[in-house]
Design goal:
Mean pLDDT: 92
Shape: globular
Number of strands: 13
Strand order of the largest sheet: 6-5-4-1-12-13
Largest sheet: 6 strands, mixed
Number of helices: 6
Structural class: alpha/beta
Radius of gyration: 18 Å
Length: 268
């Protein structure tokens, strides 16, 4: 239980370090001694990340939660193919955010990215994170974190359904309903706030007794996303700040996608 009357929680997720579409620190030197330069999209993401760091310095969060899919993994379009390089680059990315006085918690993402039982996340979390007990296995990471702040419980997990429905809020609203049922039955801690990631877009649903949030990401639209739908699979870039106290607040920090102009036939 955290002692502060008002607790500010910064939530970032889906960094996908190692992907050509994800975050990469400038001038990164890999384990072979080669310098890996940022592409155009990564330069834009890094400018947004540095802006977030400046905002965070003013906000002074008490807690930072990194909610899964920190690295890209072994497959996909990679700028860093080694899991060692991905973990080290991710560590540099997170350290650039600052927040040295905050307590850091790490949640395991999908096995496709963060590897079995969050192996790559555990490497990063062991340098920055706080040990905790939750569902799943791990030392500095788990699949689920129930964080109590003066009687208010915030539940974090990475996964949420990414369906083909028209309304993005359906999955997280359904999660909020199931959370209420599980809390009433006493089978799991009664959560006042439910936080999920994975979908790469921001959604906030508020009920009389519960907030439910899907956090934005730090990966630009990938080839996989474009194959599924160029228009539906458009990511939101940014972070979320939860203000937990007598009144619970959800603040989004979002950045526009890089501008893209149509090809002008008259200029060809």
């Amino acid at each position: 239980m955290l002692g502060a009357r008002v607790v500010k929680i910064l939530v970032v997720s889906d960094l996908h370090v190692g992907s050509v579409y994800g975050l990469l620190p400038p001038g990164y030197r890999d384990s072979r001694g080669n310098t890996v330069e940022q592409n155009v999209g990564q330069k834009y993401l890094w400018r947004c990340w540095m802006d977030l760091a400046r905002r965070v310095a003013r906000i002074r969060p008490d807690v930072v939660v990194v909610n899964g899919d920190l690295v890209e993994g072994r497959y996909g379009e990679l700028c860093l193919s080694s899991p060692v390089d991905q973990a080290e680059a991710c560590l540099q990315v997170l350290r650039a955010l600052g927040c040295k006085r905050a307590k850091w918690f790490f949640i395991q993402g999908t096995e496709f990215h963060d590897a079995e039982v969050g192996r790559e996340v555990e490497v990063v979390a062991s340098q920055l994170g706080t040990k905790y007990v939750g569902l799943g296995s791990g030392v500095y990471t788990r699949e689920v974190l129930d964080l109590e702040c003066d009687g208010v419980v915030v539940n974090f997990a990475h996964g949420i359904s990414v369906g083909a429905g028209l309304y993005r809020a359906v999955a997280i609203d359904r999660e909020a309903l199931w959370s209420a049922l599980a809390g009433k039955a006493g089978s799991l801690p009664k959560a006042d706030v439910v936080v999920r990631s994975h979908a790469h877009y921001f959604v906030h649903v508020e009920h009389a007794s519960k907030h439910a949030v899907v956090t934005p990401c730090w990966q630009l639209q990938t080839r996989f996303m474009r194959r599924r739908s160029v228009y539906r699979m458009v990511p939101d870039i940014g972070a979320v700040v939860l203000v937990v106290g007598p009144v619970i607040g959800v603040r989004k920090i979002l950045y526009p996608l890089p501008s893209l102009s149509p090809v002008s036939l008259s200029r060809l």
